[in-house]
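dumping this here before i forget
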Amino acid sequence: MRCHLTARNISPLAKLAATGQKNRRQETPAENELTIKGKAYIAGIYEHPTRHAPDKSTAQLHAEVAKGAIEDAGLTKADIDGYFCAGDAPGGAWPMVDYLGLKVRHVDSTETGGCSYLIHLGHAAEAIAAGKCSIALVTLAGKPRTGPMPPRAAGAEADFEAAYGATTHNAYGMCAMRHMHDYGTTSEQLAWIKVAASHHAQYNPHAMLKDVVTVEDVLNSPMISDPLHRMDCCVVTDGGGAMIVTTPEIAKSLKKPLVRLIGHGEAMKGPRGGKDLDLTYSAGIWSGPRAFEEAGITPKDIKYASIYDSFTITVLMQIEDLGFCKKGEGGKFVADGNLISGVGKLPFNTDGGGLCSNHPVNRGGMTKILEAVRQLRGEAHPKVQVKNCDLAVAHGTGGLLGVRHAASTCILERV
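structure:
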């Protein structure tokens, strides 16, 4: 039987959708202003110097990084009226707000693994633009080397996947193997990512691994999950970091160099019940373009890139997904020192990144923001400081690239 759609049997939602299609070209000025571009500034940052904290609790680490970021901004604890944290915060938002002695009017405990803090930066900008808070504190801290890890959330598919022995390492190993199969990427090319990180880490007094390594060193390190060697994997560290996000007016009243958020994107990717099993790309293919579009720039404009480096393959895939090169050409792009500051076209992770310096709680999103801000402020080590650094991208993932994950992209600008 043929069904005829008439005005009587079209649902209210369908009518709204049709009306929305007609009115897309008739946006009001208010709708055009629905952006966070330039409406939030990063006024304070702090990275905990420790990589091994057997004498401190996780809550204490949160408090110490919070204190450091507040002092860096030139503010006081009483100024904070928004707090953002993720699954690493003991007990969640309300116990941490109480422990830190804060009095806030806005909280956000969005949990997306390692990229939570990049998403928090975007959400803090949204809250500030909406008037929900004016000075937001975001903290990350933990001690996986000396204490228990926060429990990993179990998803609806966990029972089915656990039976096959899925681990973090082999999930990323699958991505690397598939990328090699489809595009001819080599272990030598992946090794160049570790080499670049080590060249930068030698200048970071707090880096866990300070020795410069070669491609041969990486390839000769023990195999962890074929084709990923031990040196293709990030470090495991205690520690943490924090940042202060605030209004343009407050930021301009402080003494720190001005760094503002001009574009933000977030996205999720999973197998969707077997409908999307392509392991060669991440959710960055969606979060990246959204951030660049909002910022009004292209990847060619970026002077410095903080790229999540849980494994070398993570970096290669995200460089492709963000548009720094075409899909499948990441291997050639990262080779021969192209990621080394002062040598290559795209300086990345000039603090040594998660591969060499710091990956607290196995979550690297916060550290990506912190080093991007240092670069834009001109506060990176002189040996790795990017000349005339006025635009930077901080990007990360959370979860497992080989299964399901989130991604977030932040475009930062020196004012």
